[in-house]
Request: fold
Amino acid sequence: MSELAFATAAELSQAYRRKKLSPVEATQAALARIDKVNRKLNAFNLVDAESALGAAKSSERRWAKGKALSPLDGVPTSIKDLVITKGWPTLRGSRTVDADQPWTEDAPCVARLREAGAVLLGKTTTPEFGWKGVTDSPLTGVTRNPWHRKLTPGGSSGGASAALAGGMGALAIGTDGGGSIRIPASFAGVFGLKASFGRVPAYPPSVFGTVAHVGPMSRTVTDAAMMLNVIAKPDVRDWTSLPPEARDWTRGLEAGIKGLRVAYSPTLGYARVRPEVAGVVDTAVRRLARLGARVKQVDPPMPDPRPVFQTMWWAGAGQAFRALPPDKFKLIERALRQVVKAGQRIKLAAFMEATVTRAQIGAALKRFVGQDYDLLVTPTTAVPAFPVRRLYPDGEPGDPQAWVDWTPFTYPFNLSQQPACSVPCGFTPDGLPVGLQIVGPMFREDLVLRAARAYERAHPERTLAPL
Reply:
């Protein structure tokens, strides 16, 4: 059962097709794994075994008749608890959300997964309203990293990354407003993709506006590409969603990266990176060069984008809670209350100035990645996973607004909206996973996935966490 719980979506789909395995067996393995390890990790805040087994039995009948809805039919999958799901409460890690209300609608990605026959196991934990890069909340408590339970799995999709690394489902839906797919992918040693903005439709719209993305998380690049095939379909509820594109994102994955122009920026020109992370990433980049990429160490021509990101993101937080009654506002995590109050002090002129600067940064990045270079690679985060119940590692500032200091590589590409992923690239001397971030030109998820797959194929990392 434990081995089966770590099977990839591609392996499961192939086994179903060959009638060597049933979706019911795979779902039972995932549920058994949840029973065994979720109490140690707190990755799920809701598990619906009855619904999952019912969906698995329906999938089993379809595969038996040769009428599977998609390659994901019968694959155990989790949904982050920021993403609305029909029949399940979406509490967003907050005591301010009333669970006792009608839950009658699926978000676009959830609807597409159901249509594809995926088996939905339950909801994964998130920090309150996904506001920070670690995962703990007043409602659901602390989520822990399968590689070391005293450490965070990152955030805000930390429940998803812990579930994947712990063998609790093959696929997961995450969200990313400043790195919230890529940070936990790096900390927990899994794969995560923030596709081009609009590639995966989102509804309801995020309070953080056009920096917010929904995307696939998995243990392998191929699985994420399979998932993207399903969830990257337009939905009329998202007016920013991209037009339909009839393509299979798994095609061309094995084409390699020989001849691609790859910019390597160890710091983006401003970041402070822990030596144990920098060393692993340097080695990974040398491996890319040995695979045939034309690598050059160079920084993008842009200023530190933190002030712009913080202005836009904090203003979104301030607006999101403006109408919340005082008695409910008191229920929010103290550090988040500080961020909300800071966001509400931002003036319109400062916000508009940040919008203009964002456009300049976005234009510079899109010229750099797409015109000057085919891809950009960086560390995913500046630090490895650190202890739970902290916003930042030892030695970092104590300001609740300063969590972006240790993740300086992710949020610039929320501003520019370009596709970016984190692929496992090694371990620190202490045995903690490190992620390599690969950024591509707008709308070129194929290049990002192809490069990640080339690295993964040549240098597969351990995926079985030492629980």
